[in-house]
Amino acid sequence: MAARIDPLTREVVDLIGTVVSRYHSEYDAAASKHQLTGAQARVLGLLALEPLPMRRIAEQLKCEPSNITGIVDRLEARGLVERRPDPADRRVKLAAATAEGRQTYERLRSSLEFAREPLAQLSAAERTALRDILRHMLGLEA
Amino acid sequence: MAARIDPLTREVVDLIGTVVSRYHSEYDAAASKHQLTGAQARVLGLLALEPLPMRRIAEQLKCEPSNITGIVDRLEARGLVERRPDPADRRVKLAAATAEGRQTYERLRSSLEFAREPLAQLSAAERTALRDILRHMLGLEA
DNA sequence: CCCATTTACTTGACAACATGAAATATCCAG
DNA sequence: CTGGATATTTCATGTTGTCAAGTAAATGGG
To answer: What is the spatial distance, in angstroms and rounded to an integer, between the CA atom of A8 and the C1' atom of C7?
Structure first.
């Protein structure tokens, strides 16, 4: 079954696995530099863009909504996030990053070495090629 | 600080983030199809290649050795892995995949849709280009 | 309008994963 | 042989994840 995969494809898959693993190390290290876990950093990253109902956060993170309750609880206890009522639907609670939360996330993001170190080795042409291939691969034929 | 990153690089970073997230979803889904968690699947994948001391597993997974004890315990309870003494050093326990463990991992690996679906959209030329760029990016100038 | 159903969120019980500190057994250098 | 380092486990604790049950509010058919 696995023999169906040609060597080139398998090598690319393994390389992607390596990228994934390195990305995670960097991300978690950057998060913990700011006393955040990976999950907390990801939620804060979503909320830094716009306030979201708990349910939407769960969809983005592909987990159960009940899980989000605890993560937002911890972020809220540290003043990085707040819960607001949704004027349009009283069942909904909107989680929103506070000013401090946005600031923290921006610092975290800019400390993501992954964004620079490995990519810095690529020429502009390589970066463009990589962008196009990844877009194609992800079906984002914009 | 974050403003130092040019738009192209930022887009590539975001695309990689998307790839990472998709890779994880696929990997965890494939693992749970075989009643394994992501961490268990990763350990089983390492042991499918060769037996390893607990400490080496922890290094590969970048976590504390005490954490590996529990993961190997659960794999061992299911007969996918066994602990053997290291003849050269009686402090060391070698974790080794059983025949069933290797079989399970091979099935898991071949069910990783990620290996096919998104990559299938790429031409051979694109795959080669992607491989070269990723190698370059990871500093594997083989 | 009213009631049944659905939806959003929280709570509680529980398992896996992760860390750090302490205990045990073994190795190794002096 | 002894003292210090190493490999593993155990324990305490915290975070993340699931699922089931509960509350509150929206919604739609009669």
So the answer is: 47
